[in-house]
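input
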Amino acid sequence: MAIIDLVALNGGFLLSLAFRPDYELNWKLVIDHPVWFFLITGLWFFWGYLFQIYDLEKACRFTTAFFPVLSVGFLTLGTFTLVPYLAPLLPPSRSPLFITLFVPVVGLLVGRGVYLLVFRQSIFRRKVLILGAGGAGRTICQVFQEHGQTIYEVVGFIDDDPEKFGKLVTFNHQGRGELQDQKASFPVLGSSSQLLEIVAARGVTMIVLSITHDISGELYQVLTDCLQQEVEVVPMPLLHEQLTGKVPVEHIGNHWSVAMPLEQPGTQLIWHAGKRIFDIILSSLGLLLLGLLFPFITLAIRLDSAGPILYTQKRMGRHGKQIRVFKFRSMVEDAEKDRAVWAKVNDSRVTRVGRVLRRTHVDEFPQFWNIFKGEMSVVGPRPERPEFVNELAEEIPFYRVRLAVKPGMAGWALIHQGYGASKDDSLIKLQYDLYYIKHQSFWLDFYILWRTVIDAVTLRGR
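output
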């Protein structure tokens, strides 16, 4: 897909120069002005990844394929046109080119149309066999239906329980686009002793290992034979991560290293140093913005309801150290007079001004001071109340792993799940938090901040 976009974008741009009387349509332009083509390509992929146009599931649906490409195309066009004014040392101004840049956008849409017509066909889907028809197998099958139905085709299950042979595994799933609220059924095709035979008969190209206990020597040998036949064998937790951005802690079983990797970016000194510098810079800018907004927010809170402007709460920081976080008051006074209570959707304790503050995440702005002091980070798992941490750690496996990093104002779980309102929500948040801990990077932090800003501007906060 990226190659198609690369050809359409740069080929369309080169072709568009034919509309310019001061340029000739020839490949010498690529040699004389390569920076133009590198720049437009870089801008395209930068905006493209921010808007997730390379999400294969979305790219393979007519309803979700074209509008993001069109949006990213015009964003690239606009940014590309502005660059000469922002960086005049680059080659001569391209300001008159903006009209002819419509040609590469049309090329991109045509390229995506060709991709849809060709690669949407079932012949290009990967045939998947799920090994294990228990809870983990059912979960990954449901994930396939909701996040990978245009990429993967589940042919059935393998299970060694004789009572399951020939029966259907059925569940309802919430799809996306034109595939919503569907019931799916898949057969249990046989036992692991028949694996090679079933793989050959069904044309299977991927086996998902959805067994939470240790596998036997016989099964290991069969899986090795499948690998020799170029059939990919993938553990369920890893595939679940790739498709959902979550670590399925309830289906890890004995494979604890999936949730707690021995090596990850957070253990590297250079990562900590870079992230701390980034936190200081951003929190300094945030405190400056907070100083400008503080009088207006103070007046709004004071006029709306009685009580303090700011309040503090005990939260659990890195390594379980308790910290006090600062927030603008968004609830009525004494909202938690007796004990800590989960915040709810449409919580009646939230004031009118508080509702706006929460939807724009402005109520969290005082935490820029916590970040500046080093107690928190700009991006990380949201800090939780000590009362809830102790309770959840007893019920949810690996819950304390999220304390391995500094808590953050923005987070991977926050942009996907929002704020937790129950123990079930906390389990889902933990799955996202573990994914972030395993895959920390400056690009992931930047993407999370981008999504957080979009949520704030569009009032999609809690």
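quick obs: Residues 269-304 form the longest helix (36 residues).
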